[in-house]
Amino acid sequence: MQNQIGAPKGFSLTDPRVRAWLFQIITIVVVVSLGWYLFHNTQTNLQHRGITSGFDFLERSAGFGIAQHLIDYTESDSYARVFVIGLLNTLLVTFIGVILATLLGFIIGVARLSPNWMISKLATVYVETFRNIPPLLQILFWYFAVFLTMPGPRGSHNLWNMFYVSNRGLNMPAALKADGMWPFLIAVVVAFVAIGVMVKWANKRFEDTGVPFHKFWAGLGLLVVIPALSVLVFGSPVHWEMPELRGFNFVGGWVMIPELLALTLALTVYTAAFIAEIVRSGIKSVSHGQTEAARSLGLRPGPTLRKVIIPQALRVIIPPLTSQYLNLAKNSSLAAGIGYPEMVSLFAGTVLNQTGQAIEVIAITMSVYLAISISISLLMNWYNKRIALIER
């Protein structure tokens, strides 16, 4: 009888590797075929209806105004510029919302673990209230029930003679570029480089001698002193334009329109409720023995939380925190409910209605949100790897 032990296997469905390759090939063929069918069917329907496809419409004049734009804009500008304005407005809400929601969420999360009964219960009420109300309802509440009911510019709430809150929004001083801007930016870069060198030296010194160095205060001093020297030598990097009440509205400065305020506050309050629970669970995941060890070394509760508990809890906090950042960025599309000119309201709404280029407009909008989400994920994954425990 011929020995078949070393003989190569032929094509057989009983071989797991053959089945794996076969199923993958079939899946690819099905997906490609389905994609081609949808593409061909769409092209055929567009031709029958006389609708031209392509992105040439981006070069045409928009012909409508925009309530808020971070770059210069006139009604004669192109749809491509409208797209950029919508993108910047979306990024503005996302950036501000992420920072404020993180700060508020950490405060509420720590407050939920407070030994003070009142503080703990108030934090619990906050979490259970705001995370169970749909974000769109919260946006509508802040917009219609809070900001639109405020007095007009003449009766606006004055804060330190610099900030004016009315039903027109929040008017604040605007920073305008001055001659010392570039030297100041260079000084800031030099300060960060100096801080990096100082931290590296301090870590090496601690490893060699065991003597700690006050890196925080030294870094803060470098960050303040070096740019301050630039201001003394080259002058101020900016000059401030103050808002002034003229007639029935404010002139000068910068204004956050009510739609932006309502959207930012609603997303901040809503997302912070979830971040608070993430922070609370992350802190609870750290063994109580770590707290007892810190107390045995004479550390007070504040330094124990900052230097012992939070650094370890971050390894549990970061992955779900990334999901909340993604949710905040995607929830910004709810601004269409109050007319804030972000991507969905401005580009997938007004531009789509005017041009009729539904496929192109929706594809661009979806691609933008996909790019924003992937960028946030990559950044948070990079940070998560930086703080991960390295086994030896």
Automatic annotation (TrEMBL):
GO cellular component terms, semicolon-separated: ATP-binding cassette (ABC) transporter complex
Record bears the keyword Cell membrane: yes
SUPFAM superfamilies hit by this protein: MetI-like
Topology relative to the membrane: Multi-pass membrane protein
Subcellular compartments: Cell inner membrane; Cell membrane
Domain of life: Bacteria
InterPro entries, alphabetized: AA_ABC_transptr_permease_3TM, ArtM/GltK/GlnP/TcyL/YhdX-like, MetI-like, MetI-like_sf
Pfam family for this entry, one: BPD_transp_1
Transmembrane segments: 21-39, 82-111, 132-150, 180-199, 220-240, 260-279, 334-352, 358-383
Domain ABC transmembrane type-1: 87-380
GO terms, biological process: amino acid transport
GO molecular function terms listed in the Swiss-Prot or TrEMBL record: transmembrane transporter activity
Keywords: Amino-acid transport, Cell membrane, Membrane, Transmembrane, Transmembrane helix, Transport
Family indicated by similarity: Belongs to the binding-protein-dependent transport system permease family. HisMQ subfamily.
Name of this chain's protein: Amino acid ABC transporter permease
